[in-house]
Specification:
single chain, 160 residues, alpha+beta, 7-stranded mixed beta sheet, two-stranded antiparallel ribbon, 9 strands, globular
Length: 160
């Protein structure tokens, strides 16, 4: 896509333009998911990293963590038909959530597109509600502050 055309796109559309760093999560028995670099790069400052020189590096590490997440032992996929994100507000949409019990991290994907939306570290209340209702309303919880050190820690923990 020509740069001039890209620059003219609305923010949400820019986040979905393919990039060479995009990652795919393809696990048998589950929908194919995409962790886009542009979306991840957009989410990183929203989740704690503000120094511009660290944004790309942190986005790439976060993407790798998300791509590796489904291979962890202690997780559950919420990809049934009734799973939604932001279900208690007017932005509700069908979603796929992957929840890691060890780190308490939930990765949220749009069910229709398979695209990465966000990641959260769930509170006990959210975890219980997710199990009971298959709905996760992200606005009520903690955003996962993904500093480089935290991502490196989480990656090391996932190898154990």
């Amino acid at each position: 896509m020509p740069h001039q055309e890209f620059v003219g796109l609305p923010k949400k559309e820019k986040q979905q333009v393919p990039h060479s760093h995009d990652k795919i999560i393809d696990i048998e028995g589950h929908p194919r998911l995409k962790v886009g670099f542009r979306k991840s790069r957009y989410k990183v400052p929203d989740h704690g990293v503000t120094k511009s020189e660290k944004i790309d590096e942190t986005a790439l590490l976060m993407m790798q963590l998300l791509q590796d997440m489904p291979r962890r032992l202690n997780l559950i996929w919420f990809d049934q038909n009734d799973v939604t994100y932001q279900g208690e507000i007017n932005r509700e949409f069908p979603a796929i959530l992957i929840f890691d019990y060890d780190t308490k991290i939930a990765a949220v994907f749009n069910k229709q597109t398979g695209n990465f939306i966000t990641t959260y570290q769930l509170t006990k209340k959210q975890k219980t509600k997710l199990k009971m209702t298959h709905n996760f309303c992200g606005g009520e919880g903690r955003r996962l502050v993904l500093t480089l050190n935290k991502i490196i820690y989480l990656q090391k923990a996932s190898l154990q």
